[in-house]
Structure formats: C-alpha cells, structure tokens
Write a structure and sequence with these properties.
Strand content: 5-15%
Largest sheet: 2 strands, parallel
Strand order of the largest sheet: 1-10
CATH architecture: Orthogonal Bundle
Organism: Aspergillus steynii IBT 23096
Distance between the termini: 11 Å
Number of helices: 12
CATH superfamily: Di-copper center containing domain from catechol oxidase
InterPro entries: Di-copper_centre_dom_sf, Tyrosinase/Hemocyanin, Tyrosinase_Cu-bd
Keywords: Copper, Metal-binding, Oxidoreductase, Signal
Structural class: mainly alpha
Order of helices and strands: HHEHHHHEEEEEEHHHHHHEEE
Protein name: Di-copper centre-containing protein
Pfam family, one: Tyrosinase
Helix content: 25-40%
CATH topology: di-copper center containing domain from catechol oxidase
Radius of gyration: 20 Å
Shape: globular
C-alpha cells in the first residue's frame, strides 16, 4: 500500500482513530503516533532522505489483509525457501536456501543482538532485509505484515495467523507429551498443546535445516545440535502454541511497555528484564507462544516463518513508542554491545556502531541510519 502524500497518511490516521474497530488501545496509540510522525517530518523535512510522501509504504496487521494478500505473502515466503542459499559454505555449511541465510546470520550473531543496545535496530533491519528479499527475489508486491499479539492472546489458535487454514502461517504441532520450559531457575512455562510436527496450513511441509542450538522443547531422541548450529540437520517444523506464554502479550502488557518514558524502561519491560524472573515480557512471550522447534530456540527462531510477523510487531511497538515523541525518541540507544563476553564486560552501544549482516543479506549500516523508519534505507510506517 502506498499513499500519495503525508497528508494522505494523516487522513488514514484520523480515519483509524474514528473507526469503531479502533477501540484497541495499541491501535489507537499507533494512529496517534502516525499522525505525530507525519507532523514532525512535515515540519522537519530531510532533504537528503530517499523517503518522501509519495513513496512511504504501510505495514499492516495480518488479520486486516485480504485472503489474496495473505496468499501472496505465503507464496513469497515459500518461494524464498526454494531459492538457493547465498551464504558462503565456510560460514553456514548447512544452509540450503535463502531463508536459511537469515537463520544462519541470526545464529551467528545471537550473543551480540539480544539484551543489547542494537537489539531493536538490528531486528528492524533484519526484518526489512527479509521483506526486501520477498519483494526482490520472489516478486512479492506487498510489505511485511505484523502479528498484533494482543488481539489474539486469549486464543492464538483461533487467530488468522495460527488457525491452520490455507491463509494462515500454519497451525499448531501435533500433540506430543513433553516438558515444561524453564525460563529462569525454578520458573517454568507449562507445556503447550502441541510439540509435534505442524500438520496443517501452507507450511506443513516446511523443512528446518539449521540448529537446534538451545531448544525449549525436549523429546526422546531429540537433542540440540553440537557445535555452532550451522550444520545441515533437516527436520520438520514443530510448534507448541502456548496460552501461558500468550498471556504476556495481552493489551495491558503491551501498554505497560508503551507507557515507559525512556528507551531503558521500554526495553527493560519489553524484554521482561524487570528483576522479576516470572515476568516474561512481550518479546519472549511472543516467541514462546509459538514455541517448538525452531520457534522456541533462542538462536534459530527465524527458522519458523512466524518469526517475521512477531518481529514486525516488535518493530511496530518500537515505532509506536518512538513516535509518541519523535523529536526526542527517534534517536535513543541504551545497552551494551554484547549480551555475553568472555571477560563479562561489554562496552555501551553508540549510534556509530555498525550492523553488518553480510552482503548476502544487506549492506552494513550504523544504528543511527536504522533508527527512523522513514530514514536511512527505510521508507515505511505502520497502521
């Protein structure tokens, strides 16, 4: 979807606020953020930006897409998994297709992109690079949709994302009795209603080639891969849709994140790093709602196609928060450059830090270049 002018976006924002369906608090706040972003950029035009009022694309919620639009996205995702890998074999010997290139990159950089100052911008760029691959390599004409977790938190399996229909991202895995997931010492998420291979929907024959490295699901004969997780290990897509995890994506949890006044508070609450080990947060809550393999694996989670709808929602959350006050929040960074280092010390991230995913995904960019969805390589907003 493209709009002819920023004033067209303003009309869209106003219409969103007025529509009865916009009683959802996150949707209402997102519409206000869109209007503020429009006003801010109208008052502070960037002459050097490639993004202008005629070229801004709009990312939409999965459930708002028509069946045809969902099918187009699904077909492009399946297409990408049929394209040959561009990863050097020395880097990712197990990568067999273009989707694997994204998984391998995430595995390789996991300890430097989680709990870090670049978490939000890195995953923003990663999701955008995936969108660009769908568009440029598989002919997709739309834009990356997002999963509005809070709309479906009480029953994710009935959502248009996981209902297993031909227009979903496939359903749950077959039920297999299995373990609860320990998220902190002595703190567990009960096992969900799946655990086995996905048997319904367009991704029922999806092949996971990389990992696992750290899996939340443990079954007899199913063990994490030794080494890097980058070796060839083909297997089915498993899911374990989990209501206990989904409760951490409810509206009140989302709004708690958006109520934070600074980037430190925003990331702390979003990541569930509040000091309460039982507080999962929306980021982990979304991942463990999917669960299974690779969805419940800290390293290889992009191997499940639902990952990109989840992280588009994380990006929408960040975008909504930023544009409540675009003048002061667009450029904020907080956190170290690494989640773990051998000496236990990591320097603080800065806007000059470079995100480098390898030329087979996207060219290197600084955190500053990745902070505004209408600046740097980007030109998109959310509804």
């Amino acid at each position: 979807m493209r709009l002819s002018s920023f004033w067209g976006l303003a009309v869209l924002a106003a219409a969103s606020l007025a529509a009865p369906s916009q009683s959802d608090p996150w949707d209402v706040l997102a519409a206000k953020s869109l209007a503020k972003q429009i006003r801010y950029h109208a008052a502070n035009p960037d002459a050097g930006s490639n993004c202008n009022p005629r070229t801004a694309s709009v990312r939409r919620e999965w459930g708002s897409l028509s069946k045809k639009e969902r099918k187009n996205y699904i077909d492009a995702a399946l297409c990408l998994a049929k394209k040959p890998s561009k990863s050097p074999r020395s880097f990712a010997p197990g990568a067999r297709n273009r989707h694997d290139d994204f998984v391998a990159t995430h595995i390789n950089q996991t300890w430097h992109i989680h709990g870090t100052g670049n978490f939000l911008t890195w995953h923003r760029y990663f999701t955008w690079a995936y969108e660009q691959a769908l568009r440029n390599e598989c002919g997709y004409k739309g834009y990356q949709p997002y999963w509005a977790w809070n709309k479906y938190a009480d029953d994710p399996l009935s959502s248009p994302i996981f209902d297993g229909s031909p227009y979903s991202i496939s359903g749950n895995g077959a039920y297999i009795p299995h373990n609860a997931t320990e998220i902190a010492p002595g703190v567990f998420i009960p096992s969900g209603s799946g655990g086995g291979c996905v048997e319904t929907g367009p991704f029922k024959d999806w092949v996971v080639n990389l990992g696992p490295v750290w899996s939340s699901i443990h079954l007899p004969g199913y063990e994490p891969q030794n080494g890097s997780g980058l070796n060839y290990n083909p297997r089915c897509l498993r899911r374990d849709i989990n209501l206990a995890a989904a409760k951490w994506t409810r509206t009140e949890i989302v709004m708690d994140v958006l109520d934070e006044p600074d980037i430190w508070g925003f990331e702390t609450v979003m990541q569930g790093m509040t000091g309460d080990p039982s507080y999962l947060g929306v980021h982990s809550g979304g991942h463990f709602t999917i669960g299974g393999d690779p969805g419940g694996d800290f390293y290889t989670s992009p191997g499940d196609p639902a990952f990109f709808l989840h992280h588009s929602a994380i990006d929408r959350l960040f975008w909504t928060w930023q544009n409540q006050d675009p003048a002061n929040r667009t450029y904020q960074v907080n956190g170290p450059t690494g989640f773990w280092t051998p000496d236990g010390v990591s320097i603080n991230a800065t806007f000059d830090d470079v995100v480098d995913m390898g030329d087979f995904l996207a060219p290197p960019k600084t955190l500053s270049e990745l902070s505004d969805t209408t600046g740097g390589p980007f030109c998109y907003v959310y509804t």
